[in-house]
Amino acid sequence: MLVLGIESSCDETGAALISDTEGLLADALHTQIDMHRAYGGVVPELASRDHIRRVVALTDEVLAKAGKTRRDITAIAVTEGPGLAGALLAGNAVAHAMGFALGIPVVGVHHLEGHLLAARLAKPAPQFPFLALLVSGGHTQILRVESFGSYELLGETLDDAAGEAFDKTAQLLGLPYPGGPAVSALAEKGTPGAIELARPMIHAPNLMMSFSGLKTSVLTAVTNAPDPKDEVFRANLARGFVDALVDVLAAKLVRAIKMTRLNHVVVAGGVSANRQLRERLTQEVERRRGKIYFPPMRLCTDNGAMIAAAGIARLESMTQEERDALVETLSFGVRPRWPLESLPKAQVPEALTV
User: Fold this and answer.
1) Which of 16, 73, 255, 342 is the Cys-Cys partner for 305 at CB 3.0 to 4.6 Å?
2) Locate the Gcp-like domain: which residues (predicted)?
3) Do 158 and 207 fall within a single domain?
């Protein structure tokens, strides 16, 4: 199979071509960061309109990179949810129109399942079962992954996701959107322990998390500071925030390892690119004689490659009749809210390579 993957769930438009025998042939990504930076966050209407402008051009770009034509594509995988409704519709409209024109199946992919599969695009690839920590702008979850399509939610944030906490902290520190890279870079200049911040629910005897209290703790520190614009203070506060957030995530992951007795861990989502988080989680897992897996750095954020990889797995689990039914389906929809646990089980192919 040669599968075209299309991602348009939020503020990044991604396209990629993956062969089930040759791996990732080409990918392209357009980020809307510069457009949304003026507003301090994603504006859904602007995001949707930009996806419309980009998705066809990116598709043509990856085809040219791979030396393929649209007629070479045997199937299309597109993010069906969760995400922003308008953004999802932009990608799905193009995917289904192209599928109809070419007479090929179009399979809807769960965005978070794509993130889980991204780690299988590198070698060594994780083997089932494993624990997964999904940390992104909109999701912070710990899951037990028994097999492809078999997901058990063990814990999640009750309020802000880790990525949201980064963005809000960046605003308080006068840093640009998105907050993750900016706060992490400033934290490198700070002194560990100079400013101690709240670590909500770190000692709770479960795997639930909360980051709104950490954000409030940052706000209180800024409000009470003699000079909140002082560079030393800002760097120490950024360091205190990163250390607190990493402490909470590490503590919950360690508790999950003890509860499940699984010490193979996949960490995925945009926040998984954070250097401080990677180093700490790697230490904790290896200390327990486990193995930790991260997607290739460029595939941590939303991208078309992870959607194509999940699409191949879904298509390979289908009968020929089920694939034919996808070709004959003329209607489509999107799922802005879509529980990961509701997905059907499927057979996963051998690990694909970048």
Assistant:
1) 16
2) 24-308
3) yes
106 φ, ψ to 5°?
Answer: -120, 120
Tens digit of pLDDT for each residue in 46-76? Answer: 999 999 999 999 999 999 999 999 999 999 9
What is the Cα–Cα distance from 186 to 192, expressed in whole angstroms? Answer: 12
Residues 320, 237 share a domain: no
Identify the burial level of 143 via C-beta atoms within 10 angstroms of its C-beta, where 0-12 means exposed, 13-18 middle and 19 or more buried: buried
298-310 burial code (b ≥16 CB/10 A, e <16): ebbbbbbbbbbbb
Write out pLDDT tens, residues 275-310.
Answer: 999 999 999 999 999 999 999 888 999 999 999 999
Q: Which one-letter amino acid corresponds to residue 316?
A: E
16-46 pLDDT per residue, tens: 999 989 999 999 999 999 999 988 889 999 9
- Residue ranges in the chain assigned as alpha helix (H): 33-37, 44-66, 85-102, 111-118, 162-172, 179-187, 212-224, 231-260, 275-287, 304-316, 320-328
Residue 352 belongs to a domain: no
Binding-site residues from annotation for Fe cation: 111, 115, 302
348 domain-assigned? no
In a domain, 265, yes or no: yes
Query: In whole angstroms, what is the distance from residue 31 CA to residue 10 CA?
Result: 10
The answer to whether position 351 is within a domain reads no
Q: How many domains does the chain divide into?
A: 2
Q: Report the 10 Å Cβ neighbour count for 312.
A: 25
CATH number at residue 77: 3.30.420.40
Domain that holds residue 252: 126-294
pLDDT at 333 over 80: yes
State whether 97 and 148 are in the same domain. no
Longest dimension (CA), the chain: 69
**Residue 275 and residue 232 share a domain:** yes
Residue numbers belonging to the annotated binding site: 111, 115, 134-138, 167, 180, 274, 302
Alpha carbon separation from 179 to 81, 107, 162, 175, 185 (Å, rounded) = 24, 33, 11, 7, 10
Do 95 and 147 belong to one domain?
no
Binding-site residues for substrate sit at 134-138, 167, 180, 274
